[in-house]
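Sequence, please.
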């Protein structure tokens, strides 16, 4: 186990009823406000969805999901992933207002699960003590979060230039995470359009990856907003499917190009891979590709292939790092 944990961690052993799960999460929020929670659960997606949604609504930090019985190696790995939280909002707020530049970002490659070739990159902000995307925006006001998201867009466009332009990276998409509230801000779409046009970068090489870090939007509003991005030529991806508000209704109703499955959800359904197989089949029926993230072991890669996922991303291939080489 880690030698020291510098933030409040609560392992919540979820009961078997939805109402009891919600009540337990609310009790944790009242007694340990702002705590990091790890949900310990059976393979019941209804319960875990209710508990994870409640945790986010109660301003708890959802670190991840672990299936029963508890395995200490999984717990240790999950705790080891958590960032040091001291002064995080203040440091990020200062960086956002000053303007993060492309050198502040690292990128993780995304790979075709059959051929193994690189099909995309995702941008991550390189800040000491901050590792998880949902933590980047914690405590930031709207304008600071907007500035942070714009800087991520600049970073992927800069990466495209360093890879050598269209000829060096045909079809490789460059993605960055975007909270729903920034996605809905018309200033962001205008800025993204101006940046891509100035760089002569086709919009279909830019992937806006929606994350549920600051609350979601009504589905009808979200569909109308997403359609504007697609009409402008950009790809819209849904990140962290199965976590928080990223649910099946979004696959059915939004004009998505890709759905990314977080490994926390992936771990939950490994004992019943038919469920993941059916969800991925729905993605394909809707014309969407699918990516399983945080793949670390060969066994996880084999499962992702077996259920029909298209792409994979994780430490199995690479850690996030500056990308300095051409793909030619």
């Amino acid at each position: 186990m880690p030698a020291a944990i510098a933030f409040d961690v609560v392992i919540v052993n979820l009961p078997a009823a939805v109402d009891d799960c919600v009540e337990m999460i609310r009790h944790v929020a009242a007694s340990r406000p702002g705590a990091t929670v790890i949900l310990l659960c059976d393979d019941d997606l209804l319960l875990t969805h209710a508990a994870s949604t409640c945790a986010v609504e109660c301003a708890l930090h959802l670190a991840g999901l672990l299936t029963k019985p508890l395995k200490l190696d999984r717990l240790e790995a999950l705790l080891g992933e958590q960032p040091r939280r001291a002064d995080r909002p203040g440091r990020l707020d200062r960086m956002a207002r000053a303007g993060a530049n492309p050198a502040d970002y690292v990128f993780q490659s995304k790979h075709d699960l059959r051929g193994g070739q690189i099909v995309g990159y995702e941008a991550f902000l390189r800040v000491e003590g901050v590792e998880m995307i949902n933590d980047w925006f914690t405590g930031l006001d709207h304008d600071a979060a907007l500035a942070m998201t714009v800087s991520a867009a600049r970073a992927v466009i800069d990466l495209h230039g360093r890879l050598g332009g269209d000829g060096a990276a045909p079809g490789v998409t460059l993605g960055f995470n975007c909270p729903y509230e920034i996605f809905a801000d018309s200033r962001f779409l205008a800025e993204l359009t101006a940046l891509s046009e100035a760089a002569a970068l086709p919009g279909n090489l830019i992937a806006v990856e929606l994350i549920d870090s600051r609350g979601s939007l009504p589905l009808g509003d979200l569909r109308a907003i997403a359609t504007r991005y697609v009409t402008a030529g950009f790809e819209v991806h849904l990140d962290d499917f199965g976590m928080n508000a990223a649910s099946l209704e979004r696959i059915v109703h939004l004009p998505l190009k890709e759905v990314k499955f977080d490994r926390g959800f992936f771990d939950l359904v490994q004992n019943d891979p038919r469920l993941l197989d059916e969800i991925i089949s729905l993605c394909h029926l809707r014309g969407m590709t699918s990516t399983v993230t945080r793949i670390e072991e060969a066994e996880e890669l084999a499962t992702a292939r077996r259920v029909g996922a298209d792409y994979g991303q994780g430490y199995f291939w690479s850690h996030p790092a500056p990308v300095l080489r051409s793909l030619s």
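Residues 1-6, 84-93 have pLDDT under 50 and may be disordered.
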